[in-house]
Design a protein that fits this description.
The complex is a heterodimer of chains A (253) and B (306). Chain A is built from eleven helices and two strands; from the N terminus they run ααββααααααααα. The two termini of chain A are 26 Å apart. Chain A has one domain. Chain A is mainly α and 253 residues long. The longest helix of chain B has 16 residues. Chain B starts with a strand and ends with a helix. The structure holds adenosine-5'-triphosphate and magnesium ion (MG).
Chain lengths: 253, 306
Amino acid sequence: MNFEAVKAIYRFEMARTWRTLLQSIVSPVVSTSLYFVVFGAAIGSRITEVEGVSYGTFIVPGLVMLSVLTQSITNASFGIYFPKFIGTIYEILSAPVSYFEIVLGYVGAAATKSIILGLIILATAGLFVPLHIQHPVWMLLFLVLTSVTFSLFGFIIGIWADGFEKLQMIPMLIITPLTFLGGSFYSIGMLPQSWQTVALFNPVVYLISGFRWSFYEIADVSLSVSMGMTLSFLVICMTVVWWIFKSGYRLKS
Amino acid sequence: MSPIISVSGLSKTYASGFTALKSINLGIKPGEIFALLGPNGAGKTTLINIICGIANASSGEVLVDGHDIRRDYRTTRSLIGLVPQELHTDAFETVWATVSFSRGLFGKPKNPAHIEKVLKDLSLWDKKDSKIVTLSGGMKRRVMIAKALSHEPQILFLDEPTAGVDVELRKAMWDVVRTLRASGVTIILTTHYIEEAEEMADRVGVINRGEIILVEEKAALMQKLGQKRLKLHLQGKIDAVPTPLAAYNLELAGDGTELIYTYDTRSEHTGITSLLSDLRAAGIRFSDLDTTQSSLEEIFVSLVRA
Ligand SMILES: Nc1ncnc2c1ncn2[C@@H]1O[C@H](COP(=O)(O)OP(=O)(O)OP(=O)(O)O)[C@@H](O)[C@H]1O
Ligand SMILES: [Mg+2]
């Protein structure tokens, strides 16, 4: 194992994070605050409570997930796409590093950033509504697993993308809608029966449900199903990454 | 001495269907400076990229220090430093950060003293805290060299190191290369410029359209270079070289109106004086004479055109 290399990639990526701290942190915090103002205040004045918790409090886990998902994908996809784009990937490819180590460095850094961001957003939310987390360990577990899984997903997109449009397309066209429809701002139980069935095909539902359970013990699906699905996504992403490297897909001519 | 790099039957066909390398065989000796010469698109970069792990070979085998580049990629890649043809840099990193990054990437523990030495050797020390984006092209190229040297490689690939580099920097670069060689590093460089190969290399390989068409000691090439041709334009026409002149290996040309004598400029006796007196004795008169030297450039061009 070339730990020095993993460290080098990880540090390099984290340095990029600190350099772009403003965009990385300020914009999600601002948009989260806006969600609170718009959804929490405007809608919350009509829907006062969902399953025993105030509406503002209810939407916190969903908001955190929304940011964590998009940021994981954006960070990880940029992290690997950029060296491809400017050509510095040559050095990674010519270095004595295994693919596993490359993924560990890039995905590790992207996931770290997402986790930090998730916690910052949580703290921001704490300024607007009273928070209490019943199962902090589960909460962290869901946060870490989701960050890692979607950083892996972002890594895949970064390798697949051959232009900046593609890079932005997936988060815009897939992740944001899935998160909005995945119960960030409502409980699936509030939907008509037929839509509830449709919603179960949305993977984000399971992530949010499990995450929300760790806060308030309210969930759309059982904890074991949430965890099972989360782990399945992780395994799927790992398999795809493994295949990419095995086949040299879009990295080596 | 067993070669430090041994390429056998190496072929490369790109996804586009274009065959860039056709069954290349090549051995690089430890500690030598090998110049790979060839026109644009000959396959120089492709060959280097395969050896370094940036591109996959279609078939064939490459051993570096006896290790297969696929199976033992960790070993082979840690031995190699690469300065690519294009300037690929992280614009917003500092020189120090990017060079230290390379060292870590190649699995070497931190060694600020070594990085300092490399930067000083390349006259980059005063730029160590500058962002790469603020450097000139020549400085960026030196940063690329510093990155390649950061992990103390045994083999250094320089893919057109002097493209876009001024005379002074070129000289400085050759000094670095010579020092490296003196410390036992094997150096493979590609170039379009024959003078460069002539000045630096121990051996020269010529590649064209994906095939190695010549590999020779530079000295042997210089031998060919040392040959000069003396052409005598005769006043009259002769049918054959007269027997008393047989020892000179003269060639008859221009339908019997020209005699050509080939000699070595570096030998003590060129034989010209005696040839001229023997010609007079044989009664052959000439109206004019000229000499030509075949340059490596000519040899190269004739090889590549063939
Ligand atoms: N990724 C690629 N896909 C398809 N063809 C390629 C690719 N890379 C290089 N080639 C082709 O392979 C041939 C050899 O290219 P290569 O870059 O190895 O040449 P070179 O000898 O380094 O040339 P130069 O002196 O211009 O740098 C060229 O015809 C080039 O067009
Ligand atoms: Mg080239």
